[in-house]
Amino acid sequence: MIPIPQKDYDLLVIGECFVEFACENDVVKNNSFQKDIGGADIVVAAAAARLGSGVQLISAIAHDPFYSFIRNQLTSQGINTDHVIPCQGYNGLYFTSNSHPESREYLIHHPGTANRHIKPSRTYDDLVEKSKIVYASSELQSVSKATRHTVFQAFHFAHCNNTMVAYDPNLRLNRWESLDDARECLWSVLPLVDVIFLSSPEESKALFGHDKPWEVIGFLWDRGVDIVVVKMGSCGCMVGYEGKIREFPVPDIDQSFTSPTLVGSAFNGGFLHSIAAGYDAFESAELANSVALYKGIKGGGIDSLPTSHELKIG
């Protein structure tokens, strides 16, 4: 694993801002919603920031009626928004419901046009140099050729300058022209990646041909990925690190799991916060499980993500 040097920021996240509308019942039958900001990459940033990480974000916010709301919510989480640019167009949004805990994240999802302004020119080298870890997912790569180049450029500069690169394939086929298109984007950045998060069995099978977590860990080790984190839903996660594989079940709880929305992204944020703080991959997996569990039980938007005080960690 790449040593973590002292930097100005723990985490640099590149991603699209969304407005989230959540409800308790079926979306199409519901008349009231709880509004918040969201998006897979934004939740990673917020989860790490609420735990105490220094987080900076590269993104764009459209000057539609949600502009001030999105920017204020980002800054209220402690996320540095100096490189979140204003632009024309509209912001993405999605609707989600707790009535379908088996569903993955979004029921209705509509990307905006603000993401088109996230271009390679936004990824200044000094932003990467000031951060311990650079993170992005395929959610941004799926938008356009420009956003694909943006992710590649940031990862390439980080890789060449011994800055840790973390990536989540986060496969959502409705955002891609085809599975082959998604695979092409994945393989373009894989040689640059130090930490990868993926889900099993569906995602790992579709992207790598392996539905067993230990098999995909070995497969990715052979391709140079140092830390492989396989998320297994209610079964917890399995982590491959320094030639060892360990499984981390979800802690036993008395409370029920109410919402699956972006729990995986909350997990990623908790994991990267811990890595940036100097803990190893196995210790980080335990914290990440706790962050994901907390989010799943509490439900709600980014304000429901735990702080270090709420998790009783130092």
Which key features would you list for this structure?
314 residues, alpha/beta, UDP-N-acetylmuramoyl-L-alanine:D-glutamate ligase, four-stranded mixed sheet, 14 strands, 23% strand
Mean pLDDT: 90
Largest beta-sheet details: 10 strands, mixed
CATH homologous superfamily?
Answer: Ribokinase
User: Which structural class matches the secondary elements?
Assistant: alpha/beta
Q: What is the tally of helical segments?
A: 10
Which CATH top level class fits? Alpha Beta
- What is the beta-strand fraction? 15-25%
The CATH topology label is UDP-N-acetylmuramoyl-L-alanine:D-glutamate ligase
How many beta-strand elements?
14
Low-pLDDT sequence parts: none
Structure description:
- With 314 residues, the chain is an alpha/beta fold.
- The protein has helices at 40-50, 67-76, 125-129, 138-141, 145-160, 179-189, 202-208, 213-221, 263-276, 281-298; strands at 9-14, 18-23, 34-38, 55-62, 79-80, 84-87, 92-97, 108-110, 131-137, 164-168, 195-199, 227-231, 237-241, 244-248.
- It has a single domain (9-304), classed as 3-Layer(aba) Sandwich (UDP-N-acetylmuramoyl-L-alanine:D-glutamate ligase), CATH 3.40.1190.20.
- The protein has ten helices and 14 strands.
- The strands form two sheets. Strands 1, 4, 5, 6, 9, 10, 11, 12, 13 and 14 form a ten-stranded mixed β-sheet that branches. A four-stranded mixed β-sheet has the order 3-2-7-8.
- Strand 10, helix 6 and strand 11 form a beta-alpha-beta unit.
- Helix 1 (40-50) crosses helix 9 (263-276) and helix 9 runs antiparallel to helix 10 (281-298).
- The model has no long low-confidence stretch (mean pLDDT 90).
